Amino acid sequence: INTSKPEYYKWTQWLFALLYKRGLAYRKEGMVNWCPKDQTVLANEQVVAGKCERCGTEVVQKNLKQWYFKITDYADRLLDDLDELDWPEKIKTMQRNWIGKSEGARIRFAVENSDQGIEVFTTRADTIYGVTYLVLAPENNLVKALTTPEQNIEVVNYLEQTAKKSELERLHWDKQKTGVFTGAYALHPITSQRLPIWVADYVLNNYGTGAVMAVPAHDERDKEFAGVYNLPIVE
């Protein structure tokens, strides 16, 4: 098969047009592996030791507008029909994890001395009394808006470091948790307690709202982060 021949790609174009007409293809910004020298997007497999496999240039994470397929409209059907397949259970579990359906709630935290608010998605709203800080993904638009002048240099430096890491690197469970304080505080929606707002690369902008309410007593990643930066842990 030669994917550059019209006889082949006319069908991928046909399929894309069909998805688009059905409202299942949409554009939004997302992080990609970017080679500054080749001026192109790279797959994870094309990044070797943090560098472009073709030219050796250091790869950075870049926010680009791109196309997505809206499989969320079919999440329930995809999950239910997995039960009817004669596949190994391990493979079906991988499929369920890839579909990644989560049921939960959105909770809004007001920001102290600001009109801004931080909305988080959580599957465990019942742990809200254990929230001791909030974390924003480095790509979240609120980072620049909320960072105080005193913390600006530290935050900018951290964002530059994070831009060199792939999404896979950021998701590794065994890596040392890193982050930086924005200097701003949110208010607990029930107790009005001041909650420091941090930026950390273990939070991804394309999951949920790109912000999390940290409950270190009941979440392993939050607990590790709290341990590194000596943040409160409340059961």
Features:
alpha+beta, 235 residues, 3-stranded antiparallel beta sheet, 28% strand, 6-stranded mixed beta sheet, globular, 7 helices, 28% helix
What does this structure look like?
The protein has 235 residues and is α+β, with helices and mostly antiparallel strands. It is 28% helix and 28% strand. It contains seven helices and eleven strands. Strands 7-6-9-10-8-11 form a six-stranded mixed sheet. It has a three-stranded antiparallel sheet with strand order 2-1-5. Helix 2 runs antiparallel to helix 3. The model has no long low-confidence stretch (mean pLDDT 93).
Secondary structure topology:
Layout: H1 6-21, E1 25-35, E2 40-42, E3 47-48, E4 51-52, E5 60-69, H2 75-82, H3 89-99, E6 105-111, E7 117-122, E8 133-136, H4 142-146, H5 152-162, H6 167-171, E9 179-187, E10 194-200, E11 211-214, H7 220-229
- Tally of helical segments: 7
Main sheet attributes: strand count, strand direction, barrel closure: 6 strands, mixed
How many individual β-strands?
A: 11
* Secondary structure: helix percent: 25-40%
Radius of gyration: 21 Å
Question: Which regions are unreliable across 5 or more consecutive residues at pLDDT < 50?
Answer: none
What percentage of the residues does DSSP assign to strands (E)?
25-35%
Structural class: alpha+beta
Overall geometric form = globular
Mean pLDDT: 93
Strand order of the largest sheet: 7-6-9-10-8-11
- Order of SSEs: HEEEEEHHEEEHHHEEEH
| Amino-to-carboxy terminus distance | 58 Å
